[in-house]
Amino acid sequence: MESSNEMIRRRIATAIPATGKDGWLAILTAATLWGTTGIVFHALGTSDGADAVSISFLRLALSVPFLLAMARFRTGTWLPLLGFRGILVLAGLGLSMAAYQLTYVLAIERVGVAISVLISICGAPVIVALISVLWFREPFHRRTLCAMAFAIIGTILLVGLPSEIHHEAERFWIGIGWSVTCAACYALYILVARAAGDICGPMHAGGIGFAIGALALLPFGASDGVQLTYTLGGWALLIYVAAVPTAIAQTLFLNGIKQTGAVGGSIATLLEPLVSTVLALIVLGERITWYGALGAAILLSGIFIMQGKSEEIACE
User: Is residue 7 in a domain?
Assistant: First the structure.
């Protein structure tokens, strides 16, 4: 008769995409859902005056019950049995996400959105690739290099650089430092997410990891306090962010990255700024330049190249 632990492992295994195509679909869907958070955060800041630390904390904290409830439904258990290594990996998952959220805010305060996005979002795939090749000895193919170049160049054109920088030199370089740190935290999150797939199911990993991440953010909101007063519409937006682009997207990402690998997954997540841009065009009435449209096409080309089934030739 099948033991309870064996049954849980079997249920977890059935949640993992069976093919590379399924993995790519899961990652791209997760990136699409992440892309909706920008417009939601804009609405929260405009209507409820929410600060970044409070939103980041509530995003992670409110996602925990969703993730653990999904895990209970899927596997039949609320919490998995974890060894010391498992606890360390899931703590790394939550802490890297919390650090990414916090450093992103600190970077934006000093150098603005455009530079912060370019360095943090575009820098992460490069860091992931370097660590994967140098540390984990993973092969790096010409097609992967080409896809990364296309995706990063496309993102740069899409986001664009500010025409003028009004910050003081010291403040600017501190902001650049926070942006690089943000990229490193995002890269660490992607690498730890890949490792978390060997520890437990994605819903358990997200629930435990994000609970740790939320607790880590609490001290940063201690001075002004975590804002808990929102309109009914504000709470609805927060619950949406916690349930959909956090809980569901996290599950999809952890499922998909087992098939795409850390490098491929990091490149695919560059779809996020494209989705944010499209939503800004539709909802906020913002305009896109011709080079922004060109960048979107190049970015999509890079993602398509990465998914292509042509023969890979390793770089020498």
Answer: no
For the chain, how many structural domains are there in total? 1
CA distance 139 to 315: 8
Beta bridge partners of 141: 314
- Spans of the chain below 50 pLDDT: 1-16, 309-316
At residue 47, the pLDDT reads 62
- Contact predicate 44/242, CB 8 Å: no
Range of the domain at 291: 19-307
Structure tokens at 252: 């999809």
Cα–Cα distance for residue pair 66/63, rounded to 1 Å: 5
- Residues in the chain, how many? 316
Direct distance between the N- and C-terminal alpha carbons of the chain, in angstroms, rounded to an integer: 52
Residues 6+ apart with CB under 8 A from 27: 252, 253, 256, 257, 260, 264, 265, 268, 269
Entry pTM: 0.79
